[in-house]
Design goal:
The chain has 384 residues and is mainly α. It is built from 17 helices and no strands.
Amino acid sequence: MADIASTEAGASTKGRGLGLSLLLSYLLGFGLLIGLIYYAEPWSIAGNTRVLDLLVRGGIVQLTDIHSTGLVAGVPEFKYYIWSQDPISWTLVGMFVALYFVIYACRACQFHWIARFYGVQGTFGLHARAYFYGLGIGHVLPFKAQYLATGAALAGAGQSGARCYTASRVQETFIHFEVLFFALWGLAFVGWRLWLIQMFWPTMMLLAYYLFAKDALLSSDLSARIFRAKWRALYAMLEEPNTVVKTALIGIFAFAISDVITYLVAQAFTTDNNVIMKAPFMALQAAVVGGYIASQIPISPVGVGQYEVAFAIVLLMSNVGFPEAVSITLIDSAARYGVALILHFLTRIGSDVHTDIPAVLSLYAHAHGSGGWPEEDRAGVAAK
């Protein structure tokens, strides 16, 4: 069961150190977001998302050159300010934020079932807290560090960190299945031509990210060993088909909610007056799939920037205006990241998590530098 942990953790980072890798990761993520906003007309996005109204009210942006004060000169066209005055459906906003809590609860349940199969003892509450802790760390560190953080949290509670890490990697494989399932679902509804157009750019982006980061990833031999280790872990799970089926179904349910959320986001910020951000549901579903594809190698923390660029491009290929596409993905991502971080901090405040960020960073550096899950260092992981 520890095959994945002991194998994948043998990956060697060939950069100039962990600090430089993290810096480049953050620069990439923020660079992608800034570039996306720049090419999608920042003033349009500010109006669509209603952020412009807050900036004007806060004295940051001048409404005109002669009226009001602000750090930024007047709005270039008054229409942007008019857009920012359109009402927001706060009922729909509350709904899609609440649905993100549902999604993460489903993911925690999915992790719990997988972890129990691999012999990780503990209640759903214990496993969920570890999952939420790792979820937050994954929004700070790149290259799927959330799996190491989840393992560290459970290792600090006396469980096998290697088994926990294996469970996390197997859960990742279930998510890959979900992406494939909904990609094929979209193909059945939109046909080959549009589907290929939608999926082409996210796939090319994934390839580009791989080529960009291949020196920091895995050798072909190590990749093959990881694949075999994952397959052995999944094959062992087939001995309990009921566990496999329920784990797959709850994942499909969670992924489907993601599609619904993007639709609610578009509807919540669309009015009959000025701002129209409506998009076909199948286009939004394809955008979610594209975002997941492009962020499968999360060079930036949790793939921030990678996901949003792919999401917006898929909508653009589906004949949705680029400013509207970017507005939808930014609002959606803000809600998703916000809920993940809330759950992380609630876990830190409301329970005794037996690890901390310095310990996870140490574990992160060890796993990417020496070749194994440091079971012998479990006491060091449980720093608090």
